[in-house]
Amino acid sequence: MSYFKHGEITIKKSIFKMMNIKKYWKKRGFLISLPISIYFNFYYLPFKQAIRLPILLFKPKLLKLKGKIILNTSNIYPGMIRLGYPLVSIYPNNGISIENKGGTIIFKGKCNIGNNSFLSIGDESRVVFGDDFLASSTFRLVVTTEVIFGMKVRLGWGAIVIDTNFHQIRDLTNNDLKDFCGPIKIGDYNWFGLECTIMHSVETPERCIFGLKSIITRGAEFKSYCIHAGEPLRIIKSNVIRDY
Predict the structure, then answer these.
(1) Which of 32, 147, 168, 176 is most buried per CB count within 10 Å?
(2) Which pTM does this prediction carry?
(3) What is the b/e burial string over 185-210, where b = at least 16 CB atoms within 10 angstroms of the residue's CB?
(4) What is the rounded CA–CA span in Å between residue 111 and residue 7?
(5) Per-residue pLDDT reduced to its tens digit, 85-120
(6) Helices (H), 45-142
(7) Cis ω on the peptide bond leading into residue 183 (within 30° of 0)?
(8) Across 152-207, where does the E strand assignment appear?
């Protein structure tokens, strides 16, 4: 009888050890990325902020590290900003790529940008992430002028935010070259469904909802407490909010 009890205890201990190994194995990406996170924090932040490790990177590809990062909040804590962590399993678990050519990134609080994402910040440009920002996975952000996100903005899988089309258009009547770029300002509590594209010169009010694959361009009608969807974009339902 004592033999079977002893065997049962041994099996339970083995299972417990295996569970612990599995737990730490799942965190291996975080542990491998930790030295880069430490470097990133001390590279960009004052010592009193950096020592708290507010920015945690997961499998980062640091393509260019210029410009500056500002934490515009009094509540700074470890892991407040998480970049590249696996949030959506159906997309590649390959972390985040960051390219800062000389612009300014401002975080006003908690920020979470998921796996398979890319941030490209141009020189003399500025991006502001409002408190409790979330882009779940495969987020693409290109900033050449200015992009401002309000608080509690949510972006679904595969969202693209780009404030330029990169190409000039020549007007043949007067031979002038025209740049198509301009600041983007997203209101508080905006929610964008999967694979939405937000183009240059767009400004939205608070509490807008955009359906999947919406193309949000300047000139469209945006209203608070409304769902916007379709092609061209239009209001399909009013007097609604996302329940946070």
Answers:
(1) 147
(2) 0.86
(3) ebbbbbbbbbebbbbbbbebbebbbb
(4) 48
(5) 999 999 999 999 999 999 999 999 999 999 999 999
(6) 47-50
(7) no
(8) 154-155, 160-162, 164-171, 176-181, 184-186, 191-192, 197-198
What is the predicted pLDDT for the residue at 3? 46
**Cα separation of 232 and 242, whole Å?**
23
Residue 98: its pLDDT value, please? 98
Residue 220's Cβ-side half-sphere holds a number of Cα atoms within 13 Å equal to: 25
Tokens at residue 138, please? 């495969």
- As a whole-number percent, the residues of the chain with pLDDT over 90 amount to 77
Burial class (CB within 10 angstroms; exposed 0-12, middle 13-18, buried 19+) of 62: middle
- 1 has a pLDDT exceeding 70: no
Residues in the chain: 244
Bin 10: left if φ > 0, else alpha if -120 < ψ < 50, else beta. alpha
